[in-house]
TrEMBL record:
It comes from Alternaria tenuissima. This is Cnl2/NKP2 family protein. GO terms for cellular component: Mis6-Sim4 complex. Residues 119-146 form a coiled coil. Keywords: Coiled coil. GO terms for biological process: chromosome segregation. It comes from the Eukaryota.
Amino acid sequence: MPSQEAKILGDFLLAPAPLRDFITLRDFTDIFPRAHRSNPAVQEIYRELQRIRDKDVELVRQDIIDEVKRSKQLRREYAREKRQIDDATVAGLDPVALQMEEEMSGQGRKKPHTLQTVHSDIDEACQSLEARIAEIEQENRIALTEVQDVVGALSELRHGRFAPSSSGEGIGEEVMATLKRLEAVCDKPGG
């Protein structure tokens, strides 16, 4: 079942979109002067417009799918931040006391799952994990690129060839600065 957001966007953007819904071939032919209405090119132009319109509709359909995915991720991030804020507001309680407080107040208790809710929650969790994995892989690629850049800068030292100092520093200071840069890249959290 599509989400409410997908349904609203689809109803608003896709339902009135096909060319034949707002101009028929006969109406389109009537736009042309009488002498050209029987020309086969008029029908070809109409078909080409239909093809272009259908292509645009398909692009909008894909954009709707992408937007729904983005909104789900935003909702997950919002929920995660809200949980962190809620957890921070009860920082004085240990986890057992916090659980007892939630049980006594009735907050934090969720309704039992049904087959439909379990399936949708599992799908959402899978999408969340896939999104997080993609983020981590991107962070790893960035970190690897940074490390490769620094190691490349140090390769001259390994081979005993020294490039002229671009910053005007001595070789020793430049090597130390590059090593500190490598250390900073390796120590950077999350990347």
